[in-house]
């Protein structure tokens, strides 16, 4: 990622981009817990998308840059094509799956065939999914409507611990559901992953919490302060809809 410290650096970086090239401007502030989470997400995305330019801008410190864009809060992500400062997409808040989807949408040509994606090796897809957010929960249903008692219980545990996480509903994708059983050598759901590594199911997570070890597993910035929420809806989770 390129750190932009002046408007001149911003202008120079955009001027060097080809007409169809995607640039992601990440506006952040050091006082924001959500920004700490999304900085980790951005670092992963930068490694996965070498064709995209990722620029980070400290919103309150770099004069003349934030004023160019519709930014009212941080974290904020402005997606640009070529050297234009007209956004093709704007993402506000700690929403990893929405950001991933926007980058995927705008970084590929509209005429590109999707056959390659359909033939993508399942393990590659699963690897991307478990790393889609710093904390990923694979469950039956959604946090608002869990479809089994174990999924409901782990959602409750994460809520009590005030953990920001993303989730994937395995009931919507049989390939993911069956593939994860072999991928992680864990036959049951839910499955919780932190930084791409399997922690375990509800019993394992509950044991870590009871023993006071769970928070040590979390990346910095993933837990919420009392009264804070992960996004404008008041929820501490976001949904991953595809890998």
TrEMBL record:
Q: Which GO terms describe its molecular function?
A: iron-sulfur cluster binding; metal ion binding
Q: Which InterPro entries match?
A: Glutaredoxin, GRX_PICOT-like, Monothiol_GRX-rel, Thioredoxin-like_sf, Thioredoxin_domain
UniProt record, GO biological process: intracellular iron ion homeostasis
**Which SUPFAM superfamilies does this UniProt record tie to the protein?**
Thioredoxin-like
Taxonomically, the superkingdom here is Eukaryota
Q: Does the keyword Metal-binding apply?
A: yes
Residues covered by the Glutaredoxin domain: 135-199
Matching entries from CDD domains are given as: GRX_PICOT_like
Q: Does the keyword Cell membrane apply?
A: no
Against Pfam families, the record matches this protein to: Glutaredoxin, Thioredoxin
Which cellular component terms (GO) are annotated to the entry?
cytosol; nucleus
- Protein's name according to its UniProt entry: Uncharacterized protein
> What's the source species for this entry?
Lotharella globosa
């Amino acid at each position: 990622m390129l750190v932009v410290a002046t408007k001149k650096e911003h202008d120079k970086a955009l001027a060097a981009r080809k007409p169809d090239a995607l640039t992601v401007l990440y506006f952040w502030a050091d006082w924001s817990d959500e920004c700490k989470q999304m900085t980790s997400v951005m670092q992963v995305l930068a490694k996965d998308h070498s064709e995209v330019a990722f620029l980070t801008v400290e919103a309150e410190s770099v004069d003349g840059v934030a004023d160019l864009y519709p930014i009212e809060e941080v974290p904020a992500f402005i997606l640009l094509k070529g050297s234009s400062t007209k956004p093709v997409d704007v993402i506000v808040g700690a929403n990893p799956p929405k950001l991933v989807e926007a980058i995927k949408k705008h970084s590929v040509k509209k005429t590109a065939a999707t056959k390659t994606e359909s033939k993508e090796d399942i393990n590659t897809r699963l690897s991307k999914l478990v790393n889609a957010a710093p904390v990923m929960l694979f469950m039956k249903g959604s946090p608002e409507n869990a479809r089994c008692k174990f999924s409901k219980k782990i959602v409750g545990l994460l809520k009590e611990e005030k953990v920001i996480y993303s989730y994937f509903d395995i009931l919507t994708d049989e390939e993911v559901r069956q593939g994860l059983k072999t991928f992680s050598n864990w036959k049951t759901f839910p499955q919780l992953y932190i930084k791409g590594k399997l922690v375990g199911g509800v019993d394992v997570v509950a044991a870590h919490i009871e023993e006071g070890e769970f928070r040590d597993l979390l990346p910095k910035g993933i837990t919420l302060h009392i009264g804070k929420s992960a996004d404008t809806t008041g929820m501490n989770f976001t949904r991953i809809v595809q890998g």
